[in-house]
TrEMBL record:
<dbReference type="GO" id="GO:0003677">
    <property type="term" value="F:DNA binding"/>
</dbReference>
<protein>
    <submittedName>
        <fullName>Helix-turn-helix domain-containing protein</fullName>
    </submittedName>
</protein>
<feature type="domain" description="HTH cro/C1-type">
    <location>
        <begin position="20"/>
        <end position="74"/>
    </location>
</feature>
<dbReference type="InterPro" id="IPR010982">
    <property type="entry name" value="Lambda_DNA-bd_dom_sf"/>
</dbReference>
<dbReference type="InterPro" id="IPR001387">
    <property type="entry name" value="Cro/C1-type_HTH"/>
</dbReference>
<dbReference type="Pfam" id="PF01381">
    <property type="entry name" value="HTH_3"/>
</dbReference>
Amino acid sequence: MKRALLPSQQRTLTTLGKNIKYARLRRDLSSEQVAERAGISRNTLIKIEKRDEGVAIGYYFRVLAVLGLDRDILLVAKDDELGRRLQDVKNTCRPTPELFGIE
C-alpha cells in the first residue's frame, strides 16, 4: 500500500522540483533537451518538476547529472548531527563485561 507523504515531505519535494526547473531554465535548456539527455521522457521530467511522488529517485539523479548538479547529492545527510549523537550515545552505553562483573 502506498503511503502519502507528510506535508513537510511534500513541501521538500515541491522545492526540489522547483529548484530543478529553475536550474534548467537558467541554463536555457528546454524540457525536451534535458529529458533526452537524461534518457527519460519529457512527461517524467515534468512530473519531477511538479512534485509527482511516484518518480524514482534514479530519474532525479539523471536530471541532476544533466544539469551538472549531481555532486550536490553527496551533501545529503553529510552532516548528520542527530545520527552522530545517537551513535555516540549508543557507543557510551554499550554493556561491557565489567558492567556485569565478568572479567
